[in-house]
């Protein structure tokens, strides 16, 4: 014979007053934000964005000035190394009117090119006497970026041809139809941000190894 005893559940204890206060505050904290609080957050975000926007634009312009100066330096260094590697004269032409740097390789009869290693005799103006290697546009307009200028003896020049030979020599001329002369000065490119005043200088020494000035 099996005896069964009734099970009695423990009576629920009343919640202490202090615990009730905690629960009530927790429930109140889950109701979300009021309209005034949301408007205050939106206003604060707008003020911060308006304050940071000019600074962000300035940083981007300065970065572009640095990048443009490095691209100019790389253009001349690449022309010099290409001349040494391919055994031909390679010229970089700066035209302030277009804001372009053109790299041209002396090679007559483009179908079966005959390389010319002499800057004096190379023809960089006749279409079938040179090969266009690349073009770098560095002057996007003063309002967009800055001004890019080529200087020789502290004077701005509108057009400059600098030619490199396989022997590591560099020649220069300021008339695109004139003869080349040995490069004995240090022509410079100056890249200026007219909005922030940041300036970067690219030096082209007589050995042709362009670099950024410190």
UniProtKB/TrEMBL annotation:
The keyword Membrane applies. The chain crosses the membrane at residues 38-57. Keywords: Membrane, Transmembrane, Transmembrane helix. The keyword Transmembrane applies. Signal peptide: none annotated. InterPro entries: N_methyl_site, Pilin-like. SUPFAM superfamilies: Pili subunits (SSF54523). This is General secretion pathway protein H.
């Amino acid at each position: 014979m099996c005896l069964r005893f009734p099970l009695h559940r423990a009576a629920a204890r009343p919640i202490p007053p202090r615990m009730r206060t905690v629960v009530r505050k927790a429930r109140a904290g889950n109701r979300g934000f009021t309209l005034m609080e949301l408007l205050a957050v939106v206003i604060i975000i707008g003020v911060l964005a308006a304050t940071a926007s000019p600074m962000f634009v300035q940083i981007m312009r300065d970065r572009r000035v640095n990048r443009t100066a490095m691209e100019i330096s790389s253009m001349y260094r690449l022309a010099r190394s290409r001349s040494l590697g391919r055994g031909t004269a390679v010229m970089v032409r700066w035209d302030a009117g277009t804001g372009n740097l053109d790299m041209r390789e002396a090679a007559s009869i483009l179908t079966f090119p005959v390389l010319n290693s002499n800057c004096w005799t190379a023809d960089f103006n006749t279409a079938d006497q040179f090969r266009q290697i690349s073009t770098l546009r560095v002057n996007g307009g003063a309002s967009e970026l800055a001004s890019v200028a080529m200087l020789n003896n502290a004077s701005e020049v509108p057009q400059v041809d600098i030619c490199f030979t396989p022997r590591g020599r560099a020649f220069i001329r300021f008339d695109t139809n004139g003869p080349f002369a040995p490069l004995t000065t240090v022509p410079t490119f100056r890249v200026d941000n007219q909005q922030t005043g940041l300036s970067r200088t690219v030096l082209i020494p007589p050995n042709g190894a362009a670099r950024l000035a410190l």
